[in-house]
């Protein structure tokens, strides 16, 4: 059996090697390394795939979040609500812009922001909500948009983990994750569902005005050539990455299907096991399975991780420490007892290998190994 990896980028590359190699050499030969035609073509192809009016490529997913918040014209002290249970980048950019992060607890099933808790923290200073479509499944966007519209608050979807997922509203309208709020952001970090071979990111919006602001901000805030009406940053997707992403975008749906197939195997293998809670499926959202994350009941997830490691099965804890306890982000208004669900999840979740190249033999070995551990308990 081939060695099991958390993410098998090499195996995936082997299958598209000739196309990718050709595309990379083509960029090198044309030497249009920055803002070349590949970037423009990728932008247009991603717009068509997502059904969104504007895609603005940038250097990484963290920049995308920062640029989104800059485009909204928020002022220091404005409150931005996001999840306590996410990757640090989401809250980091709020702090960098001197906005006030308001972290809230998550729903125990979806691991995305809890709507009742969201309603409770809204104040006149609340200017934006940043829902995170954690592990590949959409947050409750119907309810989030309702709250945001009622209070006139911007919504920036952190879609770094759910590109390709779809959300269906009560009225039957289906939209791609990241195209529902005012702005959506994503990351093309290699291990993401649509990953490049370095760093990359993008913003999505249907708003012409916000799109123009984002395009200016990624390019030093430039308006007319060499005139700078606002502060910006330097954040570009390079042409080699764009050329690779064009090839991988064509595979994205089949990649997400492969992830779903692995997830279905895991679901079946763990069904009914009292020590393991398999991922909840929200009927309103498809799942892109960026991660396959289980909740352990009555087991020590670090002990399990160690046991699996010895058997050659990688296992990761996403995420072990709640953000409200981090020195960089905590504020006096964040009370440990307000984050009951996140606190419990950080002490019990574990993620199993999830990628496009998992074989049935590997899946059997992984699930057998997990069951060996939990059934000893
Ligand atoms: C990966 C990730 C980011 C950051 O993306 P980078 O490209 O690494 O900067 C932001 N938010 C979430 C939820 C992520 O998973």
Automatic annotation (TrEMBL):
<protein>
    <submittedName>
        <fullName>DegT/DnrJ/EryC1/StrS family aminotransferase</fullName>
    </submittedName>
</protein>
<dbReference type="GO" id="GO:0030170">
    <property type="term" value="F:pyridoxal phosphate binding"/>
</dbReference>
<keyword id="KW-0032">Aminotransferase</keyword>
<dbReference type="Pfam" id="PF01041">
    <property type="entry name" value="DegT_DnrJ_EryC1"/>
</dbReference>
<keyword id="KW-0808">Transferase</keyword>
<feature type="modified residue" description="N6-(pyridoxal phosphate)lysine">
    <location>
        <position position="192"/>
    </location>
</feature>
<dbReference type="InterPro" id="IPR015422">
    <property type="entry name" value="PyrdxlP-dep_Trfase_small"/>
</dbReference>
<comment type="similarity">
    <text>Belongs to the DegT/DnrJ/EryC1 family.</text>
</comment>
<dbReference type="InterPro" id="IPR015421">
    <property type="entry name" value="PyrdxlP-dep_Trfase_major"/>
</dbReference>
<keyword id="KW-0663">Pyridoxal phosphate</keyword>
<feature type="active site" description="Proton acceptor">
    <location>
        <position position="192"/>
    </location>
</feature>
<dbReference type="InterPro" id="IPR015424">
    <property type="entry name" value="PyrdxlP-dep_Trfase"/>
</dbReference>
<dbReference type="GO" id="GO:0000271">
    <property type="term" value="P:polysaccharide biosynthetic process"/>
</dbReference>
<dbReference type="InterPro" id="IPR000653">
    <property type="entry name" value="DegT/StrS_aminotransferase"/>
</dbReference>
<dbReference type="GO" id="GO:0008483">
    <property type="term" value="F:transaminase activity"/>
</dbReference>
């Amino acid at each position: 059996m081939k060695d099991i990896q958390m993410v098998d980028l090499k195996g995936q590359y082997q299958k598209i090697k000739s196309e990718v190699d050709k595309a990379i050499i083509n960029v090198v030969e044309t030497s249009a390394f920055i803002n070349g035609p590949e970037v423009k073509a990728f932008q247009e192809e991603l717009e068509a795939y997502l059904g969104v009016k504007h895609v603005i490529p940038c250097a990484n997913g963290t920049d995308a979040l920062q640029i989104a918040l800059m485009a909204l014209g928020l002022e220091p002290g404005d409150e931005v609500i996001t999840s306590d249970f996410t990757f640090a980048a989401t809250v980091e950019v709020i702090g960098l812009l001197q906005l006030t992060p308001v972290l809230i607890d998550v729903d125990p099933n979806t691991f995305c922001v809890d709507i009742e808790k969201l309603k409770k923290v809204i104040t006149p200073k609340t200017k934006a909500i940043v829902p995170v479509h954690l592990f590949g499944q959409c947050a409750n966007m119907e309810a989030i948009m309702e709250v945001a519209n009622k209070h006139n608050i911007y919504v920036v979807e952190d879609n770094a983990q759910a590109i390709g997922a779809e959300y269906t509203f009560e009225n039957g309208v289906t939209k791609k994750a990241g195209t529902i709020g005012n702005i959506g952001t994503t990351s093309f970090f290699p291990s993401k569902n649509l990953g490049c071979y370095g760093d990359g990111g993008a913003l999505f919006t249907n708003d012409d005005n916000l799109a123009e602001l984002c395009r200016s901000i990624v390019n030093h805030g430039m308006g007319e050539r060499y005139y700078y009406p606002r502060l910006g940053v330097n954040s570009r997707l390079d042409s080699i990455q764009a050329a690779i992403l064009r090839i991988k975008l064509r595979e994205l749906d089949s990649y997400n299907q492969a992830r779903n197939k692995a997830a279905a195997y895991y679901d079946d293998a763990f069904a009914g096991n009292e020590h393991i809670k398999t991922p909840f499926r929200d009927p309103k959202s498809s799942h892109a399975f960026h991660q396959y994350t289980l909740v352990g009941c009555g087991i020590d997830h670090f002990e399990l991780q160690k046991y699996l490691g010895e058997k050659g099965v990688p296992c990761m804890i996403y995420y072990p420490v709640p953000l409200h306890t981090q020195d960089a982000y905590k504020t006096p208004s964040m009370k440990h007892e307000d984050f009951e669900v996140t606190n419990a999840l950080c002490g019990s979740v574990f993620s199993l290998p999830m990628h496009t190249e998992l074989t049935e033999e590997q899946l059997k070995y992984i699930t057998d190994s997990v069951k060996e551990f939990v059934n000893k308990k």
